[in-house]
Amino acid sequence: MTTATAQIRSDIRGNRLQQGLGLWYLSFWVLTGISPVDRRDWLLENFLVVVFSGLLIATYRRFPLSDLSYALIAIYLTLHSIGAHYTYPQVPIGQWAKETFHLSRNHFDRVVHFSFGLLLAYPARELFLRVAKARGFWAYYLPIDVILALSAMYEIMESWFAKIIGPGLGDAWLGTQGDIWDSQNDMTAALAGAIICMAITAILQRRYRNRFS
Quick one: which of 22, 127, 178, 190 has the fewest CB in 10 Å? Predict the structure, then answer.
């Protein structure tokens, strides 16, 4: 598996891991697109996914990412697909946790926001290493900064869509579940995930001398 500092070239025809990741996510995305709980909510949740996936495909030949980055992205998109299929407040495993541990809400959305930081900070770091030649402190700080900025941007876009679409679907899509600090808590979860990701990366880099950087 290639990592951020490896010499990377576009070779999906000879890369079984990337082929497997692409096949897995496409199959899972199609499966979760069959009879979702709310079709309009599913379409909204997948709008940015389609844009993001299209960007990855369009830039693959000129700027392929490492195998590790693609694996992390695939895991995150898989989690997001589950939330899009059920709508985040109704994801079964979150409902089970809510009832079992007497929680105030279904926290699956918090898990996915946390995963946004935990799983996508590394690909962001790879971009800064290879494009901006970031090193030292900045190679760890900038990915955290970008994750927090993207998380805030997403919360702003959610509010716009909610106002445009209407109160009913807007509330379902926002998934606040009565939490007046939902946006702030979502961003905090993403920030925590990004910090943990960069901490793990720093520890592994120090231990294995850039092998996992």
Answer: 178
Q: How many helices (H) and strands (E) does the chain have?
A: 8, 0
- The C-alpha atoms of residue 190 and residue 127 are separated, in whole angstroms, by 19
Q: For residue range 100-115, what is the model confidence (pLDDT) as tens digits?
A: 999 888 999 999 999 9
Distance of CA 83 to the CA centre of its chain: 12
Q: Taking the mean position of all CA atoms in its chain, how far away is CA 100?
A: 27
Q: Which residue in 126, 111, 122 sits closest to 190, CA to CA?
A: 111
Cα-based distances in Å from 199 to 60, 175, 195: 28, 30, 6
- 179 DSSP 8-state letter: -
Residue among 83, 23, 14 nearest 48 (CA):
83
C-alpha–C-alpha distance, residues 85 and 104, integer Å: 22
Q: Is 119 exposed, middle or buried, given 0-12, 13-18 or 19+ CB atoms closer than 10 A?
A: buried
- Residue 126: burial class (beta carbons within 10 Å; 0-12, 13-18, 19+): buried
Distance between CA atoms of residues 33 and 135, nearest Å:
41
Tokens representing 199 are: 């901490």
For residue 146, what is the enclosing H or E element? Answer: helix 137-165
* DSSP 8-class letter at 13: G
